Amino acid sequence: MKRFFCFILIGLTLVSLISTSCVQKSNKILVATDATYPPFEYMDEKTREIVGFDIDLMKAIAQKENLEIEFIDVRFEPLLEGMAQGKYDAAISAISITEKRSKDMLFSDPYFVSGHVITVQKDNTIITGKDSLAGKVVGVKTDTTSAIEVSKMYDVTIKAYVDYEEPFQALMNGKIDAVVSDDIFALSIVNENPTKIKIAGEPFTQEYYGIAVSMNKTELLERINTGLKAVKSEGAIEELFKKWVGEVPSPN
To answer: I need a labelling partner for 207 at 20 to 30 A (CA). Which of 96, 112, 187, 192 fits?
Structure first.
């Protein structure tokens, strides 16, 4: 009888070890994204699925590394807060790699180079670049690097908005003078409203997008970087750019 109980105890211990090992080696990860930022991530109105450049890229990386992804739609501010708290395994949402954010989360190797541009009404000939924004009211999305850049400018009144598209709508309605945002997003809005707004001048900054990873998940970061390197070598970034962005028109 004593030997019988010993076998039971050993069996339970082995089950526990196997179970723990499975949990530690789980390939399922929760990935946060703010699905309001085309062409990088947005909700398809017909399928009600999250689609976009970032989504396809993350799926390609996951396929390379045998990762099972569950995307969760989260507003950008709570997304950053959640990553800092370890609430999500990773996040991909056109997130610029900054020194401040790197204190709260890990970042993959860069996968996209972006820059800030100024969008104005179509008939505006006064604003031609950031140096002509003095004395103007400029719209930005809250808690973004765009907001940080505008805060550095002299004599500029900042109007912050919760949603990405709100400042552009305010611009078209004549409530503000200009919008500062990432170039690709601005192009997507301009392409939808070519008779109302335009991009003034060239990008005046350069920054890099990275996939954010929870601070305690260094192994996951390594796998994401390995997968990212593989898809980059196959030309996937260029293909995704053609699919989701297309030809970039010259600024007007």
So the answer is: 192
Question: Does 197 lie in the same domain as 128?
Answer: yes
Query: d(Cα 24, Cα 27) in Å, to the nearest integer?
Result: 9
pLDDT for position 250: 42
Q: Which of 152, 189, 156 is nearest to 170 (CA)?
A: 189
Beta-sheet strands, E only, within 92-185: 106-107, 112-114, 116-121, 137-141, 157-161, 178-182
All residues at 6 or more sequence positions from 7 whose CB lies less than 8 Å from its CB, including other chains? none
pLDDT tens-digit series, residues 135-168: 999 999 998 999 999 999 999 999 999 988 999 9
Instruction: Return the structure tokens found at 20.
Output: 């723990």
Is the domain of 235 the same as that of 163? Answer: no
pLDDT digits (tens, 9 = 90+) for 96-105: 999 999 999 9
In a domain, 18, yes or no: no
Domain for residue 173, yes or no? yes
Instruction: Tell me, yes or no, whether 95 and 40 share the same domain.
Output: yes
Together in a domain, 31 and 154: no
